[in-house]
Amino acid sequence: MANYDLIAATGCATGIAHTYMAEEALEQEAKRRGLTIKVETHGQTGVDDPLTQEEIDNARAVIIASDIDVDADRFAGMPLIMVPVAAGIRDPGKLFDEALAKDAPIYKANQSAKAAATGNTQGGGLGHLIYTSLMNGVSHMLPVVVAGGVLTAISFFWGIYSADPKSDQFNAFAAMLNSIGGTTMGLMVPVLCAYIGEAIAKRSGLIVGFAVGMIALNGGTGFLGGIVGGYIAGAVVILLQYLLKPLPDKEFRGLKAIFLYPVLGVFIAGVIMWVITKPMAGINTGMMSFLKGMQNSDPIILGLIVGIMCASDFGGPINKAAYLTGTALLAQGNTLFMAGVSAACIAPPIATGIAVLLNPKAYTKDDRSAGYVNFLLGSTHITEGAIPFAAKNPLLNIPSFMLGSAIASILTYMSRIKVPAPHGGFIILPLVNHPILWVVYILIGAAASGVLLALIAGHSAKKHGVSQNSVSLAGLTGDEAVAAIAPEAATAAPSDAEATNADNNLGDILTADDVVLNVQAATRDDALHQLAELAVRNGIAADAEAVYQKYLHRESEGSTGMEQGIAIPHAQDATINRSAMLVVRLQQPVEWQTFDNQPVDTLISFLIPEHDNGAHLHYLSNTAKLLTHQSFIKQLKAAHTPMQILTLFKE
User: Fold this and answer.
1) pLDDT the model gives residue 317
2) pLDDT value at position 109?
3) Which residues are catalytic?
4) Helix axes of 394-414 and 435-464: crossing angle, nearest 10 degrees
């Protein structure tokens, strides 16, 4: 049995995209750090690569990046970091740092439930529990809604009244499909309620949740009642567990689980739900009536709202709020609202494909590949493919996505297009009343976003010099990073083994005099000129102008700006006497062409003699490896004296 440095679990409400994007991000981060990790994924097909008890026992720490319940109690007694799935995608490095830190929080059994009861924020906290329990309910509800909705929609092929025995359109097979689909759709509220309760209070919460969900369904409270009922069920069971704690588990565990929790839980939670059913039903009816009215009276405002919601977090909670409303209306026979929601969800990923086609030079090779794949993802109603593009420049890209989604949704509502199935994208086109028109509207919205995305990417590439081959050091090995720092030496870069065995420590070419802090520089070229003059003052080079021109020549071949405010300018010239390293901290950052489009305040410069037999490649490689570690960068940025920086590189 293999042992792993870290173990992890990922999961999202749909169990389609976020789950596996987080898995990939965590695995790549582990690879960058030279660590091993096993990730358990909770997708719609179930749990893949489940963690064994032996793997759990032998791991150093646990990372849970999930919007649904993944049974954290099995990790009791271990250092554990628990965050939403989006955090696992955005910043896996931070999660690794926190999980492996000496003061990482130790998880205790039932910690989430205790946090809910006490309001304690440790170990995920009340807010996180509310969010993950809701997403757990949504995750289990979605397949039920999709199955029931599609079967019901197919029954309409024989006519809109094909399930009515009194109609001339009646068809026995269609009536059977309609009955099966309608019954399945009826499970939406009980399943949503039950799995919210299950995330809060495990199996007892599940049982009570199902019962309360049925009360909510029969009372006409809709999905709002299902959500409220789920939290009532979970809270009641947690309260019962606390009140019955004096009864010893050894003698009463079975009685509690089989009799006391279900009977008392269903009674108490059921009474509460029964009492609030009428006001909840009134709220639900009012909301649905308002939305139906908006479809007819002001489709532009409704489409704008739906478009903004669906493109704000690409499958996250705001997106899911619009989707849940659409499915609830669909269950009531309203097929107009879901048409706009689907259009708004399909447009963003297709927009990324259009953007990379319009301006391929502004995107990296990986971005272009992702954009092409997003044509497929978008056409099947998977919005999450747009996330990597949104994350690159969120302040500009997300509004661009919102605009396109709003256009697609507005046009859909204005033309009163009907989509009777809650998912599937273009797969369900035979069920749409105006399929070609709907596709055209979606493509118009996607094109609007795509043009804006391409323009933004092109402007960014022009301003910051980000070429289609640009990469981030955070995603590279030492050899790959030295190729990024010094592409002219990439073919001769030493292997990891050679760099490790060679006696070319960075401390050998760096002295305290070569580290200068609080340097004033107005521009990049000014900073390079001062580096060249420092080299002459320290006896490293004989001609400052010659070194400066070599710096400029190297920058013209490709920027040496990295990321997080660091640049690695270097020069090789006959006037340089020996291999040396300079570290300069600027008082104010200066504009530089960097991978993350941020200005630079820290310069790590290498000065290389004309003939050094490739020794500088070892220094470059070692530096590149250091810069792939966030802990090193943090220490470098935090250092206040030249001696601290010198010691850091020597170590």
Assistant:
1) 67
2) 67
3) 12
4) 160
